[in-house]
Amino acid sequence: MKQGLIEEIGKNQRLVIVRQLKKAGELCVKDLASRLGMSYMGVKQHCIELHRQGYLDTGKNRKAIGRPELLYRLSSKAHELFPLESNEFSISLLESARLLFGPTAPGKLLLLFFQQKTAEYRQKLGELKQQERAMTLTKLREREGYVTEFQAGDEFKIIERHTPISTIFEIWPEAQQMERGMFEKVLEGRVFREFRKVSGVYECVFRIIW
What we know:
Layout: H1 3-9, H2 12-24, E1 26-27, H3 29-36, H4 40-53, E2 56-61, E3 69-74, H5 76-79, H6 88-101, H7 105-125, H8 130-143, E4 147-151, E5 156-162, H9 166-171, H10 174-187, E6 190-198, E7 201-209
Antiparallel strand pairs: 1-3, 2-3, 4-5, 5-7, 6-7
Helix pairs in contact: 3-4, 7-10
């Protein structure tokens, strides 16, 4: 997280709330308090202050009966708290490659990057079985700065709510399919990639079929 923004947020409890919302997407005060083991009023006051500072946005969960439930989610400003690898230098290198070698050069470099990451992941995962592969890949991605979790149930999926290379995906959308292809090769199965971005909420779901 960036030091200047951390100092602006101030209290450790608020950083914990920000991290929890990053992992969950959006939550009401009651659910936040339950997950964090904090009092309802304490969490509510922190959320109000974070909203005032511009780090949280709000939404509503409409119910069949009763009043709509207020939900909190991260704003675009809060996104800056989390590490990004796609900095100006990386983007400048890709743009320089385009100027020097033509319009296809950035795509070729990105393809090479994902090929190398595929080989790296496959080496680290070794001969692990299907579900173990997904769980271990999730842990590897977490260490690299992704906010990610593995879910098993009626279907298997890896959910990422932060990626350090988000700017790369915005400028070169073809990299999204390269990433999906990497997941297929590493997990040795069929992978579908679903993405949404609302306010400061980034969510990319990789649905795995073995």
